[in-house]
Amino acid sequence: MKTRLYRAAIAGTGSFLPSGRLTNDDLAKMVDTSDEWIFPRTGIRSRHIAGKGENTSDMAAAAGRRALESAGVRPEDVQLAVVATISPDSPLPACSCLVQTKIGLANATCFDISAACSGFIYALDVARQFVETGAVETALVIGAEKMSAITDWTDRTTCILFGDGAGAVVLRRAEEEAGGGVLSCATGTDGSLAPLLFIEAGGSALPTSVETLEAHRGFVKMDGHTIFKHAVRNMANIAGKAIAEAGLKPSDIDWIVPHQANIRIIQAVAKSLDTPMEKVVSTIESTGNTTAASIPVALDLAVADGRIKAGDNVLFVAFGAGLTWGASVVRWGS
Ligand code: ACO
Fold first, then answer.
1. Which residue in 109, 139, 196, 304 has the most C-beta neighbors within 10 A?
2. Does the annotation count 234 as an active-site position?
3. pLDDT in tens, 206-227
4. Which atom of ligand 1 is nearest to the CA of 160?
């Protein structure tokens, strides 16, 4: 049985995209590819790339600061900070600990979540339960990635897809009767499909060595074709589950903010929910796939430009390595 004492409302959003850009034409000078191949298959024209010394924790802190400002929350009032990332600055400590110091979250408990492209929804699901049970009043949820650091820039089947960035939301305790807040979260995992999308080396099973470096075994490898099919099916299913758990129908959803992996995946998911693309927020053309950052970055843009308004029902839906998937329905507050 699910019980909640409070509702977790999204009180503020923020994002950060590094100024460095890499276009499809730039990529065509690095590997055997072209804008004509990349754009029709993915919807991507360019991506943001962090500079040397511009780390995941820096981008996460920048997005987190902006979210706190937009919520009118002081850093010291945050009691929980969860960072979703698969590209932390280093294996130890957690990226969230570095973010704590950079923002000044002196009173927050901080930890990371590793669920690849579903990471933001997993982190949102965990943090909202801290808020709903009354354990904390204010939480900061961040998705941040420097995918450029774990991408094989000689592999044309993956390097065309990824970009860097960070996005964040502030969750605040609200009364159950309050209009806005997280209405539902649904998540799923199938670890038997892990070999479809993985990084082989750099962990305890295969520590980094001269051999792993020379063989490029420390970068993302993917069976894109098979992932594509799993993505569409699982995103459609989990979105339906989250919408039903929110007590809504697909036609009640005002905006879909999906993970930005491939415009064709996004179109297929929208179609399965009978939702026109006009109701879908997409940044993929200029961001590529920023993994855990993609949903909060897209959300922040759509809030900032006035598309998402008070009273709107917003669906987040994602899919990624693991395999993992998740969806959440949020009613936007005033
Ligand atoms: N430029 C030119 N040709 C290419 C490129 C490229 N960048 N990449 C692959 N090709 C070639 C292949 O070699 C292949 O050639 P062949 O037929 O001679 O063997 C041909 O193009 C077709 O390759 P496919 O891999 O079948 O192409 P597909 O249409 O499936 O598109 C893509 C590939 C865009 C990667 C797609 O499969 C996709 O988007 N998959 C999902 C990716 C995803 O969502 N990942 C999950 C998130 S990532 C995370 O969680 C970290």
1. 139
2. no
3. 999 999 999 999 999 999 999 9
4. 7
